Amino acid sequence: MIYSVAIPGNLNQQFLSHLLREDLQEDLCFALWHPSRGLERETALIQQIILPEQGERQNHGNAIFFPSYFERVIALALENNAGIAFLHSHLGPGWQGMSMDDVIAEKRMAGAAQATTGLPLLGLTLGTDGSWSARFWLKSAPKAYDQVWCNTVRVVGERLGITFNDLAVPKYVFRPELSRTVSAWGENEQQKLMRLHVGIVGVGSVGSIIAETLARIGVGRITLIDFDSVERVNLDRILHSTSLDAHLQKSKVSVIAREIKKSATARPITVKPYENSIIEDEGFRAALDCDILFSCVDRPWARSVLNFISYAHLVPVIDGGIRAERKRTGNGLLRADWRTHTIGPNRPCLECLGQYNSGDVAAERDGYFDNPSYVAGLPESHFLKHNENVFAFSLDLAAQEIQHFLTLILSLPGGLLRLPQLYHFVQNETEYFEQGCNPNCLFPTYIAVGDHSSIMVTGEHQDAIKVRATRTRFHRSLKFWTTLAMNIIRGD
């Protein structure tokens, strides 16, 4: 298990205001955190700042706190079913180490924090440039706690700020293949891109193009999540897919993983394919290992899960969708529209943007979308009755989603691409929407609750189970007949 920390952007501003003092003295405070456990990474989600009250701490160059402050923090942690984080500032930039005094102070708190909350103490140090370092204090023996450094600390706001632990996540050596890319925005920005862990949920027409783009611009860690197999009807849209892949019933993630490893410009490149739905627990947990997610799905239940992840687990999600429609009479395209948006704290959620509704989520969970009679009774405008798309439309949508990705990650001099946008192909017009969540939306109340949420968003996904079973039977049969044929040829 590796470890990380994520902080909502508005909360990070409160930490900066308190800890980076104009008199250049160090300062401290506490916070509460909730766990977010992926398949390979556990993240501490900082949810609430607890500032010192009068007489609870003292500044004299260094800062110290008194027992009453820590006792108040413990009570609040118990009340909120949360872990305890201790934060302090150092007078230097970048990822910070620890002095012996720092180690002694945090080690003394580790036992009480673990015993009262059931979660390890989390320590964070802030540098003068806004960079964070972090470590967990894990129990290794009775009354013994060891410091385990985090790989990253992420700040999730209008941009995704991230501080890397260089020892755990080494910088890349640039290869000639990346020379033109690096020349566009510089080595520091390229290092950010290369050390990110990016997930793509759904590797169909749009997802396959995004995967290829990420591999070519040097992203070093890519997770692919999709349960489906390549079919002949996919061959006009899914990048890299072939008729042989369809004939052999290859999973989409295996095909895309195979190909982007060839075109990747980062070395080493890590590509992890998961033959799961985001709705299933393994797919859900794989997504929590990522720093940012692309949502390339077209069903409401999957979108609702990604919506939840963006708020509750502080993983920004870039989402988009295409709606094309042919003229009712005669030939010709009536309309083709595609929209893109980034969601997460302080941004409108997918439900409020109209990308799904809770009624459709409930219907899909109950299996109605697999019932032909139910689907037949839906109005003609329902999305289930519209699956028109062409590769050219997917190409443009993928490009717009990559633009959202770059403006989220890079320190660009221009304006921030933060607004949801809708492009009308026939009219060649782009609309931008300045909106927030509806007043009664619940998702902003889920920010940074992580695994402590009482909401169950995952479940059994019958389509995924059936597709995997069909693929397994085919591959077993193919292996049997191939082995038999080889034995006959050899005369065995």
Supply the CATH superfamily name of the largest domain: NAD(P)-binding Rossmann-like Domain
Label the overall shape: globular
Biggest sheet strand order reads: 9-8-7-6-2-3-1-10-11
Fraction of helical residues: 25-40%
Main β-sheet: number of strands, strand sense, barrel status? Answer: 9 strands, mixed
Q: What distance lies between the first and last C-alpha atoms, to the nearest angstrom?
A: 47 Å
Number of helices: 14
Unreliable residue stretches: none
Radius of gyration: 25 Å
Topology, number of strands: 19
Q: What is the second-level CATH architecture of the largest domain?
A: 3-Layer(aba) Sandwich
| CATH topology type of the largest domain | Rossmann fold
Describe this structure in words.
By secondary structure, the protein is an alpha/beta fold. It is 34% helix and 25% strand. It has 14 helices and 19 strands. Helix 6 runs parallel beside helix 8. The longest helix is centred in the C-terminal third of the chain and has 29 residues. It is globular and about 80 Å long. The model has no long low-confidence stretch (mean pLDDT 92).
